[in-house]
Design brief:
The structure holds two protein chains of two kinds. By secondary structure, chain A is of the alpha+beta class. Chain A folds into four domains: about 70 residues, 2-Layer Sandwich (Dna Ligase, domain 1); about 120 residues, D-amino Acid Aminotransferase, Chain A, domain 1 (2-Layer Sandwich), CATH 3.30.470; about 170 residues, Succinyl-CoA synthetase domains (Rossmann fold); about 70 residues, Alpha-Beta Plaits (2-Layer Sandwich), CATH 3.30.70. Helices cover about 30% and strands about 25% of the residues of chain A. In chain A, a hairpin with a 2-residue loop joins strand 26 and strand 27. The chains are: A alpha+beta, B alpha/beta.
Chain lengths: ~500, ~300
């Protein structure tokens, strides 16, 4: 995750010379007791959760001895914190605090540079008291303006003998941010203890999603800024994104109200801005998107297919709304193929409205609508001249008129898949199957017409016209062929691309 | 007039031999952009669509003369070095197309650009297009689409979303509004030119009469534009839509810059700041063309 827990952040700070309290993480109450025994003396137990105000929800408690630490940890592990259950607590020596400072290194988008926010009076809520915080400029390579920082510290009421150490700690916060490529490192508070030590008592570190690839040492599983730990579907989606860099694929589940009248829908956007605008339009029609999703940047049909499958796997959705900017620079028919394959394969039983405006929109809409015409639920495609508001309104009408007695959705794999009599070829993300037993001259001609040069005819049967190596990354073309055959009423081609975690 | 790009500007393409580089060079040339050279290390001596390719930006400049703008299509992790090479070779304006450029790289590029008196657009930009004149990057995808969708005229567009740059341009065109220039500033949090910078360029452009803005949650670009309006440094009418009314705090919505952090960068905050300053902010995206027509009508345009 692009956000680090407190204990992970403290390890990064400690490695760069900032003192942190002695302590260790515990994943069971027994482990908490062991940690407290090791530390000796009074301890503090803190839930490891991505939210502010942990103390207010009972997430920070003191313990005088190991037995109490165990009991406190017992009460915390499994408790609900924001969107998730606590699975880790940090057990630390309890500090005798004399003074608290606020140190935050973040990115100033207007200055296009890092900036230090420094509160020498400290205390909780300091980040919202603008007058108590000094901003000091920084350079991405050279670091914090040394003279400005020194001057600010010398004009403060800090004990003179501690200024050097506080200054060193603040420069180390910058080094932590730079070396780990953090979007922000917040030490709140940096404390001065009664015995005169300067320590990071708490910290929040967020790593730049786009730099995670350069930092395997951070052990970040999913490079996504989310307000919750990744869900099962988010993990599946992230694996798809990582395995296929053709275009963007972003998927995040959104919080639900849980109210019985909530009208949950699957949401499939294209492009960041277009997705947000489309989500706003569908929310104005009274729906709650179960997820946010964006496939764009000329995504492969396979990626759009995977996205649709993941969206449809969300329980309780009553419709599928797809819309991007509406005037896409990319060729839109690849997205239509990916969507059609997913809808047919799953036997879509909720209405789907997809705004496919942009280059080749006529072809895209025709592919989608004709391929899906026999499904239990209605699938409609729209063009750039159809506004988001009108399409969202049409979607509402379809959802309200939807049939309730429809078969459940499940993944349908044709019977010719896996048969020795079928032709098949392993490709990068799955396997292509052709039902040779159904390959009469008409079917072979159909394949020839729609295989984009991948097949040639030999003795009335289709044979691969390119090398197997060349065919490996042609998954989008094979998906197009599958959908074209289905549109022609001859479903004799199937691209089997099971999603790890969903189908296997 | 137009801002940033017109047919007279001499353009270099870094990463010209790659798949994206070639496809976009085709779009640019067919639309009217004066592409004078390309660069791909190790591919010097080749030609792409009749454009000579060089190993280094310095070699290209030595051979074809100074260039005004470099459009970069390198892989994200190579963008920093490509940008350094361009500014050190004297190029004064860069367009960084790639997505997923690490934010510390973007800040280093900004520092290097500043030190060399250069500016940049992006990262993660679809580009800049002046209808009837020239395009940088990939707006429109194909020259024929770009010509069909965007008509020359007197409204400037600046957007944080690539797709919505095209969308704004198309929907304005449908009600008869022509455009001076469309600018996609990029979806990231650290950008070379931000919405307020582009608004100032439109302010100084004699041909632009009004500015249409597609903003988003996150960051402070819209608030900074509101400050420019409030302090009368931008006096041309501004008509805006801000995406992300339905977005929640703490989750990034695709664009690296589209994240509400604490109480900063909220939809409400941006809408209120712009309205207070005197901009027209529409609640539904579809109202943008009508609102723009009304504003232009009031100005007697």
């Amino acid at each position: 995750m692009a956000r680090l827990h407190e204990y992970q952040g403290k390890a990064l700070l400690a490695a760069r010379g900032i003192a942190v309290p002695r302590g260790g993480v515990a994943r069971s109450s027994h482990e908490a007791r062991v940690q407290a025994e090791r530390l000796g003396g009074p301890t503090v137990v803190k839930i490891q959760a991505w939210l502010t105000g942990r103390a207010a929800i009972g997430g920070v408690k003191f313990a005088t001895d190991p037995a109490q630490a165990e009991a406190v940890a017992q009460s915390m592990l499994g408790m609900k914190a924001g969107n998730f259950a606590v699975s880790e607590v940090l057990v630390e020596e309890r500090l005798e605090i004399n003074r608290e400072l606020f140190v935050s290194l973040s990115i100033d988008d207007a200055a296009r540079a890092p900036v230090l926010l420094l509160g020498l009076e400290g205390g909780s809520g300091i980040e919202d008291r603008a007058e108590a915080v000094t901003r000091i400029a920084a350079h991405p390579v050279d670091g914090i303006d040394r003279d400005a920082l020194r001057d600010r510290l010398e004009r403060s009421t800090l004990p003179r003998e501690l200024i050097d150490e506080v200054e060193r700690a603040i420069h180390a916060v910058f080094r932590t941010a730079r070396e780990c490529e953090a979007r922000s490192v917040e030490v709140n508070p940096l404390v001065i203890t009664k015995d005169g030590r300067v320590m990071a008592a708490d910290c929040r570190v967020t790593i730049d999603d786009y730099a995670v690839f350069r930092h395997p040492e951070l052990g970040i599983e999913i490079a996504r800024e989310l307000d919750h730990p990744p869900t099962a579907l988010e993990r599946i989606a992230y694996a798809v994104e990582q395995a296929d860099h053709r275009g963007t694929f972003y998927f995040a589940e959104l919080p639900r109200s849980g109210k019985p009248d909530e009208r949950l829908i699957g949401f499939h956007g294209a492009g960041g801005g277009g997705s947000m605008m489309s989500m706003d339009a569908v929310v104005r029609e009274g729906f709650t998107p179960a997820n946010f999703c964006d496939t764009s940047g000329n995504p492969s049909a396979a990626k759009v297919y995977a996205a649709a499958r993941i969206i449809l796997a969300q329980p309780g959705i009553i419709g599928y709304f797809g819309s991007g900017s509406g005037v896409a620079s990319q060729e839109q028919y690849w997205s239509a193929y990916g969507l059609a394959k997913a809808f047919i394969e799953m036997g879509l039983n909720i209405p789907a409205v997809i705004r496919l405006g942009g280059n080749s929109e006529d072809r895209a809409v025709e592919i989608l609508e004709t391929a899906c015409r026999k499904l239990p639920a209605k699938v409609e495609g729209y063009r750039k001249d159809d506004t988001p508001a009108s399409v969202a309104s049409r979607f509402r009408a379809l959802v309200e008129a939807r049939k309730r007695d429809v078969p459940k959705m499940s993944r349908h794999v044709p019977t010719f898949v896996g048969k020795a009599s079928s032709w098949s070829l392993a490709i990068e993300r799955g396997r292509v199957w052709i039902d040779l037993s159904a390959c009469d001259s008409g079917a072979t001609a159909l394949i020839m017409r729609n295989s984009l040069g991948l097949f040639a005819e030999s003795k009335g049967r289709p044979v691969l016209a390119v090398s197997e190596a060349e065919a490996k990354d042609k998954d989008s073309e094979f998906i197009a062929l599958e959908v074209e055959c289905a549109r022609a009423g001859r479903p004799i081609v199937f691209v089997d691309m099971p999603l790890k975690g969903l189908d296997t | 007039m137009a801002i940033i790009i017109d047919e007279s500007k001499r353009v270099l393409v870094q990463g010209i031999t790659g798949r994206e580089g070639q496809a976009r060079t085709k779009l640019m040339k067919e639309f009217g952009t004066n592409v004078v050279a390309g660069v791909t290390p190790g591919k010097g001596g080749q030609q792409v669509l009749g454009v000579p390719v060089f190993n280094r930006v310095g070699d290209a400049v030595d051979a074809v003369g100074a260039v005004d703008i470099s459009v970069i299509f390198a892989p994200a992790k190579a963008v920093k070095d490509a940008a350094f090479e361009a500014v050190q070779s004297g190029v004064k304006l860069l367009v960084l197309v790639p997505d997923r450029v690490p934010v510390w790289d973007a800040m280093e590029i900004a520092a290097a650009a500043r030190a060399n008196g250069a500016r940049f657009i992006g990262p993660n930009t679809l580009g800049v297009l002046s209808p009837g004149r020239a395009v940088l990057g990939m707006i429109g995808g194909k020259a024929e689409s770009a010509r069909e969708w965007f008509k020359p005229g007197h409204v400037g567009i600046v957007s944080r979303s690539g797709g919505m740059t095209s969308s704004c341009g198309y929907y304005l065109g449908r009600v008869g509004i022509g455009l001076s220039t469309l600018v996609h500033v990029g979806g990231d949090s650290v950008l070379g030119m931000r919405i307020p910078d582009v608004a100032l360029l439109f302010q100084d452009d004699a041909d632009t009469q009004a500015i249409v803005v597609f903003g988003e949650i996150g960051g402070s670009q819209e608030e900074d534009l509101a400050d420019l309006i409030a302090t009368r440094r931008v006096t041309k009418p501004v008509i805006a839509y801000i995406g992300g009314a339905a977005a929640k705090e703490g989750t990034r919505f695709s664009h690296a810059g589209a994240i509400i952090e604490g109480n900063r960068g909220t939809h409400k905050g941006k809408v209120e700041a712009l309205r207070r300053a005197g901009a027209v902010v529409v609640d539904a995206f579809g109202d943008l063309p009508r609102a723009t027509l009304e504003v232009l009508g009031e100005r007697g345009a």
